[in-house]
Design a protein that fits this description.
- By secondary structure, this protein is mainly alpha-helical.
- It has four domains: about 40 residues, no CATH class; about 90 residues, no CATH class; about 120 residues, no CATH class; about 40 residues.
- The chain is built from seven helices and seven strands.
- The strands form three sheets. It has a three-stranded antiparallel beta sheet, with no helix packed on it. Strands 4-5 form a two-stranded antiparallel ribbon.
- The longest helix is centred in the C-terminal third of the chain and has 47 residues.
- The protein is flat and about 160 Å long.
- The chain starts with a strand and ends with a helix.
- The model has no long low-confidence stretch (mean pLDDT about 80).
Length: about 350
């Protein structure tokens, strides 16, 4: 039995405006058993990259790593043979001088012809093996393994941990983050959009068509034809969001320098929006921040307090002026009475 899910564009049946068709096909009798137009995809196949119009994907990591893997196997075999020769070297024996099998195990005895004169050379000796090249070969193996790790992005499958050098500037830290993002992007992006995003979209569509969110007719008008995008948490997105803090510091320095030339530049940045965006990027807990409505109420309260304080100050100043005028008028009246 073969199950086929394909586009209705290559199907001869009536699709009823549905984009795909599900076909159960009997391979033994060469005939379809059921053909049903459907909305969803049913199958979501995790894959990396496809070439041309082929539905079969290939792994760039394997393409790059296969020659290096074969080289590593050849070097490892050579090292194993060299290590075995160094630990158990080949023997050199004089012909007709050895009267028994060569016993190389601990405590073994090899019998030599008693008439052999060893002044002509040892009857049995180990071959001199030069092992000076082993350290260099080990370094070559380490380099090959490092290349394989880079091919399969194993050096990128880790949490981003920038250096904590106190002398590092915001620009330098930003460059380090950007390089990490560029290196990790080919690994995480296809997985998110092709597989994780596809699973979320397929699940959402099934729930939506089965009224899991209520009747589609009752949805608010902006949501009826809205495109739903899914975002995922990953080391890549963490590094991208962390750049917001560095961008904030860079922007602050730019504004501080520009204010010296034109004070009106101070009104360009939207400070509350910037702080909220940076806080979200560095994963500040939501409970630590007030809502926009609470902030607006606090700003209005502070403005009202300033207005009340200014009004009291004006009233106090007015009272002092009135008192001063009253005293002055009283003094003038007394002076007029005392005048002849």
């Amino acid at each position: 039995m073969l199950h086929i899910v394909c586009s209705t564009e290559i199907w001869d049946g009536q699709a009823n405006a549905k984009p795909r068709v599900s076909i159960f096909y009997d391979c033994d009798h060469n005939k379809p058993i059921e053909e049903t137009p459907i909305w969803g995809q049913i199958y979501l196949i995790p894959r990396w990259q496809t070439a041309g119009t082929s539905q079969y994907a290939f792994s760039p990591a394997t393409v790059a790593a296969l020659p290096e893997g074969r080289l590593l196997q050849a070097m490892t075999l050579t090292l194993l043979e060299a290590g075995e020769k160094a630990a158990n070297p080949p023997l050199i024996a004089t012909k007709d001088a050895i009267k028994s099998d060569m016993q190389q195990f601990p405590g073994g005895v090899t019998w030599v012809d008693a008439e052999y004169d060893e002044r002509l050379g040892e009857a049995l000796r180990a071959m001199n093996i030069d092992v000076k090249g082993l350290p260099l070969n080990l370094e070559m193996v380490k380099d090959s393994r490092s290349v394989l790790m880079q091919c399969f992005f194993l050096n990128k499958l880790r949490a981003f941990n920038p250096t904590t050098d106190p002398q590092m500037t915001a620009f330098q830290a930003g460059q380090i983050m950007q390089e990490y993002v560029r290196g990790a992007l080919p690994l995480f992006e296809p997985m998110e959009f092709e597989y994780n995003g596809g699973l979320c979209e397929e699940t959402f569509d099934i729930l939506y068509r089965n009224s899991a969110f209520g009747s589609p007719m009752d949805l608010p008008e902006p949501l009826k034809n809205a495109n739903i995008d899914f975002r995922f948490e990953s080391p890549l997105h963490d590094a991208i969001d962390q750049q917001k803090g560095i961008k904030f510091l860079e922007f602050k320095q730019i504004i501080a320098a520009a204010v010296e030339l034109d004070p009106s530049v101070i009104h360009i940045p939207d400070a509350p929006m910037m702080v909220r965006d940076v806080a979200a990027g560095i994963r500040v807990p939501a409970k630590w921040s007030r809502t926009e409505l609470q902030v607006e109420e606090a700003v209005r309260a502070v403005a009202q307090e300033k207005q009340d304080a200014a009004l009291l100050q004006k009233m106090k100043a007015g009272a002092e002026v009135a008192a001063t005028l009253g005293t002055a008028k009283k003094d003038m009246a007394q002076a007029a009475v005392m005048a002849p």
